[in-house]
């Protein structure tokens, strides 16, 4: 393990042990380096690395602070990876979504609240009336966000928010190109709501799994067809000639 890796591990231990807490300023560079037994150059490289992943915040002329360590902040690295996906990894992302969305539906159904059911029903009613694919995808995103938030796990909701935002274009394209996709989305949402209302966690999870798998399977089929004829795939953000504009 390099000196830089040692320094990173040492700062991590300081945070884990509560020696420094979110918002605290680290000791001066010379003092910290001596305490950790690493060179100033190694410490500087460690700080740069921890700043890049949003664990530390370097304020010029003021010092180096531990960030809030809020999940949304720490998950920004995943957002970067998601943003540079290709078609194959987009399908893999839907596989991850399928697992995590099922978990959020299961958690929501385990302790459904009137507020949650009211918000989900409101979204479902609006979805049934909308004539816009963009609006439907926006409402679908809201539906999944409500369930993830209801699960009460900020890391789960943060990861799902990142994955969901990266798949908007594919979901819009499916709504425009697959016969019955809109009606299917509306009916699947309604079934999930009823399972949550009944407190049937396993049914809610199973219905959510099928719901997300529908888009995942369509993507696999679309990618297969594209591979057969050699045309550009309308699955990612790289080529927008065949894609509708995303809603804001």
Spatial arrangement of strands, main beta sheet:
1-2
Q: Per CATH, what is the topology of the largest domain?
A: Four Helix Bundle (Hemerythrin (Met), subunit A)
Shape: elongated
Q: Helical stretch count?
A: 12
Tally of strands: 2
- Radius of gyration over C-alpha positions, nearest whole angstrom: 22 Å
Portion of residues in beta strands equals under 5%
CATH superfamily of the largest domain: GntR ligand-binding domain-like
Structural class: mainly alpha
- Percent helix range: over 70%
Write a structural description:
Strand 1 (56-59) and strand 2 form a beta hairpin. The chain has 248 residues and is mainly alpha-helical. It folds into two domains: 3-69, Winged helix-like DNA-binding domain superfamily/Winged helix DNA-binding domain (Arc Repressor Mutant, subunit A), CATH 1.10.10; 74-229, GntR ligand-binding domain-like (Four Helix Bundle (Hemerythrin (Met), subunit A)), CATH 1.20.120. It has helices at 3-16, 29-36, 40-52, 71-74, 76-83, 87-110, 114-129, 133-150, 154-166, 168-177, 181-197, 201-229, and strands at 56-59, 63-66. The protein has twelve helices and two strands; from the N terminus they run αααββααααααααα. The longest helix has 29 residues, at 201-229. Helix 6 (87-110) packs antiparallel against helix 9 and helix 11 (181-197) packs antiparallel against helix 12. The model is unreliable at 229-248 (pLDDT under 50). Strands 1-2 form a two-stranded antiparallel ribbon. This is FadR/GntR family transcriptional regulator. InterPro entries: GntR_C, TF_FadR/GntR_C, Tscrpt_reg_HTH_GntR, WH-like_DNA-bd_sf, WH_DNA-bd_sf. Residues 1-69 form the HTH gntR-type domain. Keywords: DNA-binding, Transcription, Transcription regulation.
